[in-house]
Every structure is written in structure tokens, then in C-alpha cells.
Description:
single chain, seven-stranded mixed β-sheet, elongated
Amino acid sequence: MEHPGSRIGPLLPTPSFITYRSPNTDSTMADIKTFLLPDLGEGLPDAEIVEWHVKEGDTIRLDAPLVSMETAKAVVDVPSPYSGKVTRLHGKPGDVIATGAALAEFELDPSLPQRAEAEGTGHHHAPPPKPAAAKPAAAEAARAAPGGDAGTVVGAMEASDRVVGAQYTSVGGVKAVPAVRALAKKLGVDLARVAPSGEGGVVTLKDVKDAAAAGTARAGAAPAAAPMPAAAPATPHLAPQRSTLSAAGKPMRTMPAHVEALGQPEQLKGVRRNMARVMADSHAKVVPTSIVDDADLHHWQPGNDITVRLIRAMVVACKTVPALNAWFDGEALTRTLHPHVDIGLAVDTEEGLFVPAVRNADVLDAAGIRAAVNRARAAVLDRSIPPEELKGYTIMLSNFGMFAGRYASPVVVPPCVAIVGAGKLRHELVPVMGGIETHRVIPLSLTFDHRAVTGDEAARFLKAMLDDLAKPL
């Protein structure tokens, strides 16, 4: 059974190929099909080749794994659209292929099963765009900071190498999920040389990173270290050769082979490429305005979960002021107020920004919210999150304060109209009747689209959050 976030079914709508005939050595005509990269169901204009599962000249059967492609949201295995000989592969690992552009060519084998010409699968193709530039990231989020909140949003995802059994594929006897294979390729690690630590002999992200750091599984290296020859006489005029081994013959930590020199232009890929598009779109369409204040947490009981309390306070505020739990269409000038609350969590990774959704937060209790946050965090970490879980949220939350900063102007992503930012928790002296007390406070920033939300609505929304956060439970 394939994992919903890392696999898709056959990707062969009827307009996804070009047919022509060419003569062969027997003077007969062979059917040649050109397979165009389909829309992988995420509305993105391109995808990056991670790994070909065949080479030119191989024979492949219908629906067998053809290539792993990395989009902004997942590593997707694309199955073969035909049975026959692979005559040409368009691109190599690291190349970006535009949706609707040629991906592979096949010479059909009439003796093997083929998909009917009129059989569609629901995937759509954009017209072949202008040639896109090609050239060349697994993500590991920061460990949760101490203080009892292991799941606060930005930068607080606990590292995990748990592998779902249905998620991995076995290629060349090595079991690994697509994201692990992608990381190994980027780090120059030969998976066949990596000792697996996952259940059932599955290679994990940590295994690959450890092997890259130790230099024990370099791609293209000799199977075993040859005996050291006798030392030759010193040659003062020759520069010493660089090595991954110390003078004692131990592996040293070196710069990964895939890291390019600083100061050189680098083509944005995957998540970071999509993030750039989303940020530019927001800048062009939204009229952002921010208001800030501090929430007093003095009455909290021990064991309160900061992320859960923030989400609960947002739910209370959405019910109090529905105008911020809304979508806005700036072209049609229409507003949609939502009866439910789906909160998009801004999760920052080394690859870029993910925004998974916590669905129906308005009907979840504290345990349900925590479980939903944990699921989203784990799915982002192992790149198994389904594309549909990265869209459709009604309001957003970013906890940038896990690292530093009090106040900010987080980016509102259309069609949403508001995002809440939580800054760094701190202690502050507060004057009270008869003296001064030390209170824990958390700074809040509310950024809203002023085309759809009034200043009064935004201020009342923030006050509703402050009032709820001030409660003991």
C-alpha cells in the first residue's frame, strides 16, 4: 500500500503523450511515445528529478516505477505510462522539468500490456512552457527548546527517523523512502554502503547524515580500503594530497561533495522555489497591517502547552470576530466567512517553509490539538504530508519566538486575511496593588489584510486572544 503523501497513482491522462513512428532495422514502423510531465496534483509549474529507476535501453512494464520527482511538497514516484523500451530520458537527477514538458520516450512493445489510448486518470497538463533553467534538500527541523513545549510551530519540530513500512521502496536491495534517497544523492552517499537502523532494515535520514559526516559511504568509493603502502621518501616540492582520513587513518568530517562554492548563483529548488513564488504573490496582492500586544500568562497552571493554548485562543477569537477567519478574493471583491477553524502552522525547515493545516481546531480538545500538531510536524519532517494538507486553512499561526524576536509582521498568504505571530516568552516586572510582581508574558503580533479587515475588527480579535490566554486553563 502506497503512502498518500509520497506516492501517486498512474499519471497518464490522454493528452500526456506525443506519438510518432520511426523505421527500424526490419523496415517496419515502431510506435514511439513521448511522455509529458503531468501536473502532480499540486498546481505547481515544475518538479525536480530525484532519481531515475530505469536507464535508456531498458524495457519497462506499464505502471512500474519510472522516476522519483520532487515537488515543493513531496517526493513523488511517477509510474511508467507504457510497456516497452525506454529510448530517451529527458533530464538527469537535479534537473527541473516544467509541467507539460517531455520527460521520457518509449518504443511500445505490442506483446506487453498497454493502457487504452482513451483512458484518463484525472491529472491535467499545462501546455509545454518555455524551456526552464535546470540545475540543482531533505529537511531536519530544529529540536524543541526546553520548557515543556515540544511542538511549538516554527523551528520546534523534534527530529524523528520513524519510517512507515508502506512508504519505502526497495531498489538494489536497499530499503529507503524517496526523501532518504534524495538526501543520499545530494550528499554523495552510496545507500548500499549505509548501515540501516530502521525497522526491517530500512535506511533512515539519520543513517544517511551519519554516513555523510563520517565519510564512510561515499558514492564511487572503493568497496574496501586497500592496505596502506609503505611510506615513500618525502618529496618536499609536491603538495600533500587531500584526504578524508586523518593521520591515524580515521574518517574526518569534511564538507559534503554536493555543497557548491559560496558566491555562486544557485537555482532555487523544491520548497524554497515555491516559497519564493508564494511570498511574491502575497506581496503583490495583500495590504498588510500589524498590531501587537503582550499576553500575560501569570495565572497559568504548570504543564500548560503553549502551542495548544495559542490555538485555543485563536479559536475563541475567530468565534468572537469571524472577520479574521475568512478568505478574500481581491479581484472579485468577495469575502468568505468560515464556520470552521482550520489553522495553518508555519513550519520552517532547512529546505524552506511548510504550512500544514490543523483541521477543525474549533471542535478539538487540548489532547486532540496536540495530536494534530504532532501528526503535521512528523509528516513535514519525513516529507510524507499529502499536498491537500498544505492548503485550505482559514487562518495562520507562526511561532517565530522559539528562536528569538518579540514582534514581527508575518506574511499573510492569500486567500487568508490574517496570521498570528508569537514571539519569545519572557519574564517582565508588572506593577500591582501593593508592589511589583514578575509575570511570564508572550508577545503577540497580528498581521491582517486591511482590504478585508478593519482595524477595529483586528483589535477586538487580538483582545479576545489576550483574554483567553490570561485564564488559568
